[in-house]
Write a structure and sequence with these properties.
- The complex is a heterodimer.
- Chain A is mainly α.
- Chain A has one domain (7-162).
- Chain A is built from 7 helices and no strands.
- Chain A has helices at residues 2-6, 9-34, 36-45, 51-74, 78-102, 123-142, 149-162.
- The radius of gyration of chain A is 18 Å and the shape is elongated.
- Chain A starts with a helix and ends with a helix.
- By secondary structure, chain B is of the alpha/beta class.
- Chain B folds into 2 domains: 1-58; 72-175, 3-Layer(aba) Sandwich (Oxidized Rhodanese, domain 1), CATH 3.40.250.
- In chain B, strands 1-5-4-2-3 form a 5-stranded parallel sheet.
- Chain B starts with a helix and ends with a helix.
- The chains are: A mainly alpha, B alpha/beta.
- Chains A and B meet through helix 3, helix 4 and helix 5 of A and helix 1 of B.
Chain lengths: 163, 179
C-alpha cells in the first residue's frame, strides 16, 4: 500500500487530472454565473433544497466552482481546491441519485440550462460524476504540484532554508 | 531495526497526510467563505441579480415518468362486450360515464397529469379478467389509448383499446342493437 502512495508517477498523472478538472469546473460555472435566475430554476427542479435556500445556492455555488477551477489551474492551494471539488461532486451525485429515484425526467443543469430532452439525467450522469469525484480525490491525495504556484513556493522555501 | 525505521516513516507519512488534509479542509472553508462573500456582493450590484430568498415557488415543469406498455388497437366492431372474462374500462370523466357507458364497464378516468391510483390498478389485477379493453374520448390523443398503455406499463397483460373511443363504440353497438 505504501509503495502505491510513494510511486513518483503520481505527480505526473495527477497533473493532467488537475488541469482536466479545472477546465470542467471553469466551463461548468460559466452559464451559472452569467444567468443565476436560470440556474436557480435548475436547483429548484431537483426539489431537494427548501425554497428559502435555492437562490443562495444558485448565487454562491458557481463562484466556488470558479474559484476551485482557477486554483486548480494555477496550482495554488491545490488540495483545498480538490477537496472543494470532491465535496461538490459528492453533493451533485447524491442529488442526481435522489432525482432519479423520484423519477424526475429533467436536465442535470451541470453545463447549461437545458430541457430534459437535450441533457436528461441518467445512470450515465452518475457514472460521469463518480468519475470526476474519483479524479478529484486522486488529485487531493497524490498531487505533488510539479507545475504551479504551490510547487514554486515550496521550492523557493526549501532553497531559502538550505541557504 | 529496519522494521522499526520503516514503521516510523509510515507513521510520519500518515501524520503528514492527515496534517495536509486538515490544512486543506481549513483552506477550503476559507475559500468557500470568501466565494460566498464575493458572490453575494456581485449579485447585489449586478442588474440581473436575484433575490437572496425566493418567496414564490418556481414554475418548474417536470414531466411525469412515462410507463407505457404494449397494447393492441381494436376496431369497435370487433368488440364483444359479452365475452367472458373481459373487463371493460371507460377512461372518460365520470360525468360522461354516467351519461352513457357500455353495460358492465367500470370507470377509471384517465388523468394526463397524474398517474392512475395504484389501488385502481390493483382492482384490475384482482378482477380475474383475461382481457382488458379500454375505451376513451376518441380524441387525439385518445384517453382510452393512454390509459391502456399506462395499465399495460404497470404489469397488466392483454390490454386493448378501442380505436375511435366511445363514439365509434356507441355507433357500433347501436347498429348491433346492443346498449
Amino acid at each position: 500500500m505504501s509503495r502505491i502512495f510513494q510511486w513518483k508517477g503520481h505527480a505526473y498523472l495527477a497533473l493532467p487530472a488537475r488541469f482536466y478538472l479545472a477546465l470542467v469546473f471553469l466551463f461548468a460555472c460559466y452559464h451559472k454565473i452569467m444567468d443565476p435566475g436560470a440556474f436557480a430554476v435548475d436547483v429548484a427542479t431537483y426539489q431537494i433544497l427548501p425554497l428559502s435556500l435555492v437562490n443562495l445556492m444558485a448565487i454562491i455555488l458557481p463562484w466556488i466552482e470558479l474559484a476551485a477551477g482557477v486554483l486548480l489551474l494555477v496550482g495554488f492551494r491545490t488540495r483545498a481546491a480538490a477537496l472543494l471539488i470532491s465535496a461538490m461532486m459528492l453533493v451533485f451525485t447524491v442529488a442526481i441519485v435522489i432525482a432519479l429515484a423520484k423519477g424526475l425526467d429533467m436536465s442535470c443543469g451541470c453545463f447549461a440550462s437545458q430541457g430534459a430532452n437535450e441533457d436528461p439525467i441518467s445512470a450515465r450522469t452518475i457514472v460521469r460524476d463518480l468519475g470526476w469525484l474519483l479524479l478529484s480525490i486522486y488529485v487531493l491525495l497524490f498531487d505533488r504540484n510539479p507545475l504551479g504556484v504551490d510547487g514554486w513556493i515550496m521550492r523557493r522555501e526549501s532553497i531559502r532554508s538550505e541557504g | 531495526m529496519r522494521g522499526i525505521a520503516s514503521t516510523d516513516s509510515a507513521s510520519n507519512r500518515d501524520q503528514g497526510l492527515l496534517r495536509s488534509l486538515w490544512l486543506a479542509s481549513r483552506d477550503a472553508v476559507l475559500i468557500a467563505s470568501a466565494c460566498a462573500l464575493v458572490a453575494l456582493v456581485f449579485n447585489f450590484f449586478r442588474a440581473d441579480g436575484i433575490a437572496l430568498i425566493q418567496r414564490s415557488e418556481y414554475q418548474i415543469l417536470v414531466p411525469c415518468p412515462v410507463t407505457e406498455g404494449a397494447v393492441e388497437a381494436i376496431e369497435a366492431e370487433a368488440l364483444k362486450p359479452e365475452e367472458p372474462r373481459t373487463l371493460l374500462i371507460d377512461a372518460r370523466p365520470s360525468g360522461d360515464y354516467q351519461k352513457w357507458h357500455v353495460a358492465g364497464a367500470i370507470n377509471i378516468t384517465y388523468d394526463y397529469l397524474e398517474p392512475t391510483e395504484p389501488k385502481k390498478i390493483q382492482s384490475i389485477a384482482a378482477s380475474g379478467a383475461r382481457r382488458v379493453v379500454v375505451y376513451g374520448d376518441g380524441e387525439n390523443p385518445d384517453s382510452g389509448e393512454q390509459l391502456a398503455k399506462e395499465i399495460a406499463g404497470k404489469g397488466i397483460r392483454n390490454v386493448s383499446y378501442v380505436v375511435g373511443g366511445f363514439n365509434e363504440l356507441n355507433k357500433s353497438l347501436s347498429s348491433r342493437g346492443e346498449p
